[in-house]
Design brief:
heterodimer; A: alpha+beta; Arc Repressor Mutant, subunit A; 3-stranded antiparallel β-sheet; about 40% helix; B: Amidase signature (AS) enzymes; 11-stranded mixed β-sheet; about 10% strand; globular
Chain lengths: ~500, ~500
């Protein structure tokens, strides 16, 4: 769908010259627990619709929830990793509203008693560190997924009918809410992006979520308001829903800044409302305004008993937390000898863990970085997926580099090996075998090919004999062509120079 | 054997164990009785003759093989239509669930099946258990076997009437504010509301989750204890279920029936007697207390001042929870679906609205509106929040009272059964029926109602309520059984023997 708008937008620079932005980010994380939040149903992504359901997640009359202890554990670990206080005692609450993809017509969530609260974390943008205060991290269940069929917009209005898949209903979610983020100035878009990227790394490190933004396991709502100066009271905010890629987070902040600035500059007020983000056009359009907002009538979920995490257990979970992302990055940069720029590019590409694992599998830091940030990044970009979604493992990359180091393949052949691995043809060694990609190391065959090239290009050969070594390139090219690339170009060069010495 | 429908469940269990009768014979006898009298009583919404007889045959095979599943294996039972029964329609007395067949069993039902009790059918009730007369059933009222022009109590009037009319020896009820005990009182039967968390609520379609509790509906205290031990105990599917073994209930009932109550302190709750209680009800209550004193018990008067606010508290908490529970009935996935008149291509929201308008009765709508209001932003603290505080105080009053007394006594219901139609247009008068039973639900403590006699002025049954501290369900069985035995001796036989023969009855 394509959204059009007549909203005037001020350029970002102009907006920044006149206003000070305040951010607020709400991130929903789907946990990767084996079973759902309140029942034993599977959480595996992509199963046929409505095959992972039971009376509980379908909200059938009489069914009752039972809290998934693993989800509570994950929530506490997330809270601890964000330096939050962990509640001594907290409850679930019902958030009441009617929608067909919500089986009970209330969402079991947490309201005024979140499991984790009052935390903070830090993100780096271009060498500046920003502290982000965390308001809370609470547990809730996901809703089902509606598919509106017919009609032009894919929205419920105008659709012939709607289909609902309840496989997602009841998947455990953690909602992480920041306090207002002030003091970012013109860096606001990058800070927002860096925060979400940082959360993604942190959650990945904790192993609690797949954090696949493209599959919706990490979803972001962006709150933004503008004010005349950093000392002025907060302005009216908009909440842009479902901004589901790092790039979009940055773009959405940028767009909303320009849109709100244009309104304020024209003497209009910003309407407090939710807004829809349009990935294709990079704009937002109005959703529900506060005037029509639901009264959710929260009250404590009477079917569940309060959660009172044992303090010793919380301490144990705290002691078992992995190294925080910033510390980890600093350590790895030192170990690998990367420059600041190389490190930033590696982190920015979401390749930190992949590079680390590739090095662990035997590759040098430089080689690991090279493959992931060039060849793999290009392929991921072509496929429109994250690096981690590519069908190639760090072990594969390390093995291909080893083949290069052993002289079995050259860089060009290595790319073909990756083609094969990505096409599901097997391990790098199997691809080399099946595709016959090994470099010709048979000296006799190579020597004969060099002789033929010299014979076919007497002028060039003479130039080399005369000392114009640079001319060897033409002969190397001819040999490589004959060998269909499967030769070690360095050895070919040596042979040519030997023969024409 | 002589008419098996007149015998207690304990006697039937003995007859089955001795081979004197078979489960098929018992089940047939009760199905015949239902066929004969239920046209007048209307205790049942669904009779599952085929399923019950199949279960009875399986039970007889187990008996023949010497491997009965429980003491009550083969004794038939009726189940209130608020509990999910796999393969058997479950309506909660509401049109909105017309035709819904659950794909799963409530834990209580699963335990009945496991223990080998053939399920005769599902009993009538006030819609979603909202009422004290069973008149709010969308499928028509149940009639009191003592006088067919009168109500059998509610919401579980169907279960109580089925047992009182000898259509079933046992039944399961649910009690949110008195829906087991008050019908017991007005039909001359026994009803127990266990400690909150003592019997699994999984599969019990919630009215008010923090108050609901399923329990036995029977003709004797011993039968109730036998049934309670079958259905009670921890259930991992219900997070509010108590993770500890039940007290020895059958033993307590037997001990109570032996008669000696020396050392037992009975607390008579000042706020639950006197004004507002029908003279005959009060009189039978006072006599029952005297009988217990005669057996060695000591009486103390206790005061629970916050009980006077219990009704108001209850009518905030219950509608709040109910309004949220009932939101799921939206015509999207199961149950009734009504399309609005004159709307060409109705939206999901319009279908929800039309369905809920037609599918819910007035009392349900009344409570949804009350509950929605009580939870609304800006009113929550004044209503729901305040009610929770009073609820805490009610619990404290109980705690103080239980320091002075082992059990608390009161009449179960303030009046005997009233005429069908008499209070249906006066919700407040209807609500007052549960004055004495509601405090136990607010505090989660167990209670029993046993017949205390017939009121002089109308000749209708009255009930004695015994309340005990949470998890001390054994005490209500002990004192209940003692009262039952002393009263039986006084009457010279069961009270129900004095109930009129029902038209068409085969006995």
């Amino acid at each position: 769908m394509t959204a059009t708008t007549t909203d005037p937008v001020l350029s970002f620079d102009e907006a920044m010259a006149r206003f000070d932005p305040v951010l607020g980010l709400e991130v929903h994380v789907e946990l990767n627990t084996v079973s759902k939040m309140f029942c034993g149903c599977s959480t595996v992504f992509g199963a046929p619709p409505n095959t992972q359901t039971c009376p509980v997640c379908l909200g059938l009359p009489g069914s009752m929830p039972v809290v998934n202890g693993k989800a509570v554990e994950a929530a506490i670990r997330i809270g601890l990793a964000l330096n939050c206080s962990i509640a001594e005692w907290c409850r679930f609450a019902r958030k009441n509203y009617f929608y067909p993809d919500m089986p009970k017509n209330f969402q079991t969530s947490q309201y005024d008693e979140p499991i984790a609260y009052d935390g903070w974390t830090e993100v780096d943008v271009d060498g500046t560190t920003y502290r982000i205060d965390i308001e809370r991290a609470h547990m809730e269940e996901d809703t089902g997924k509606s598919l509106h069929v017919g009609g032009a917009t894919g929205r419920i209005h105008g659709a012939d009918h709607s289909l609902v898949d309840y496989n997602r209903a009841g998947i455990p979610l953690i909602e992480i809410v920041t306090k207002p983020v002030e003091g970012t100035g013109a860096q606001a878009p990058q800070v927002a992006r860096a925060y979400v990227a940082h959360l993604r790394d942190l959650l990945l490190g904790l192993g609690v979520s797949d954090v696949r933004m493209e599959q919706g396991s990490l979803r972001c709502d962006v709150n933004l308001s503008l004010r005349e100066s950093p000392s002025a009271p907060f302005g009216t905010r908009s909440e842009t829903k479902n901004v589901n890629s790092l790039r979009s987070v940055e773009r959405a902040v940028r767009y909303e800044t320009g849109r709100q600035a244009a309104r304020l500059a024209a003497g209009e007020r910003v309407v407090q409302e939710t807004r829809h983000w349009h990935e294709d056009t990079g704009i937002t359009t109005p959703g529900r305004s506060k005037e029509e907002a639901e009264d959710y009538r929260y009250f404590p979920e009477p079917d569940l008993v309060p959660i009172a995490p044992d303090r010793a257990w919380v301490e144990q979970l705290k002691a078992g937390l992995p190294e925080p992302p910033r510390e980890r990055r600093a350590r790895l940069q030192q170990e690998w000898g990367f420059s600041d720029l190389e490190m930033r590019d590696t982190v920015g590409a979401g390749a930190l863990g992949l590079v680390e694992e590739t090095i662990a599998a035997g590759a040098s830091p430089a080689a690991a970085r090279k493959w992931w940030l060039s060849e793999m990044a290009r392929r991921a970009n072509e496929q429109g997926v994250e690096l981690t979604a590519l069908a190639v493992t760090p072990a594969d990359v390390a093995r291909v580099q080893a083949l290069v180091d052993e002289g079995k393949v050259n860089d060009k052949l290595a790319r073909q090996v990756f083609d094969g691995v990505l096409a599901g043809e097997g391990t790098p060694d199997e691809v080399v075998e099946k595709r016959g990609l090994a470099v010709v190391s048979d000296e006799g065959a190579l020597s004969a090919a060099v002789d033929r090239a010299i014979e076919a290009n007497p002028d060039v050969a003479q130039k080399i004999r005369d000392g114009k070594v640079a001319a060897a390139g033409a002969l190397i090219g001819a040999v490589m062509k004959e060998m269909r690339g499967q030769a070690d170009a360095g050895r070919v060069r040596e042979l040519i120079l030997e023969k024409l010495a | 054997m002589s008419d098996p429908t007149r015998r207690t469940a304990a006697e039937l269990a003995d007859a089955l164990a001795s081979g004197e009768t078979s489960s098929v014979e018992l089940t047939r006898a009760h199905l015949d009785r239902i066929a004969a009298v239920d046209g007048d009583v209307h205790a049942f919404l669904q009779v599952d003759a085929e399923g019950a007889l199949a279960a009875a045959r399986a039970s007889d095979e187990r008996r023949a093989a010497g491997t009965p599943a429980s003491v009550l294996d083969g004794v038939p039972i009726a189940v209130k239509d608020v509990l999910a029964t796999e393969g058997l329609p479950t309506t909660c007395g509401s049109r909105i669930l017309e035709g819904w067949v659950p794909p799963y069993d409530a834990t209580v039902v699963a335990r009945l099946r496991q223990a080998g009790l053939p399920i005769l059918g599902k009993t009538n009730m006030d819609e979603f258990a909202m009422g004290s007369s069973t008149e709010h059933s969308a499928y028509g009222p149940t009639h009191n076997p003592w006088d067919l022009s009168r109500i059998p109590g509610g919401s579980g009037g169907g279960s109580a009437a089925a047992v009182a009319a000898f259509e079933a020896p046992l039944a399961i009820g649910t009690d949110t504010g008195g829906s087991i005990r008050q019908p017991g009182a007005v039909t001359g039967t026994v009803g127990v509301k266990p400690t909150y968390g003592g019997v699994s609520r999984y599969g019990l379609v919630s009215l008010a989750n923090s108050l609901d509790q399923a329990g036995p509906v029977t003709r004797t205290v011993l039968d109730a204890a036998l049934l309670h031990e079958v259905v009670g105990g921890h259930d991992p599917l219900d997070s509010t279920s108590i993770d500890q073994p039940l007290p020895a209930l059958v033993e307590a009932a037997r001990q109570g029936a032996s008669g000696d109550l020396s050392g037992v302190r009975l607390g008579v709750v000042k706020e639950l007697t006197g004004e507002g209680y029908q003279a005959g009800v009060q009189q039978r209550f006072d006599e029952a207390v005297q009988l217990l004193v005669g057996a060695g018990a000591e009486v103390v008067e206790v005061s629970c001042p916050t009980f006077v606010h219990a009704l108001a508290t209850y009518y905030l908490i219950l509608p709040a929870e109910a309004s949220s529970n009932l939101a799921r009935f939206d015509a999207m996935r199961y149950g009734l679906r009504v399309y609005p008149d004159g709307v060409d291509a109705p939206s999901a929201e319009e279908v929800m609205r039309a369905t809920r308008d037609v599918g819910f009765g007035d009392e349900v709508k009344r409570r949804i509106i009350l509950g929605t209001y009580a939870l609304s932003s800006g009113y929550y603290d004044a209503y729901y929040g305040q009610a929770q505080k009073v609820r805490t105080l009610v619990g404290r009053d109980f705690a103080t009272a239980f320091e002075k007394a082992d059990v608390l006594l009161s009449p179960t219901a303030p009046t005997t059964a009233f005429k069908i139609g008499e209070k249906v247009d006066d919700p407040l008068a209807m609500y007052l029926n549960d004055l004495a039973t509601i405090p136990a639900n607010l505090a989660g403590v167990p209670g029993i109602s046993v017949p205390s006699g017939l009121a002089d002025e109308d000749g209708l049954p009255t009930g004695l309520q015994v309340l005990a501290p949470a998890t001390a369900d054994d005490r209500v069985y002990r004192i209940g059984a003692a009262a039952e035995r002393l009263l039986l001796e006084k009457w010279g036989g069961p009270l129900l023997d004095r109930a009129p023969d029902l038209a068409g009855a085969s006995a």
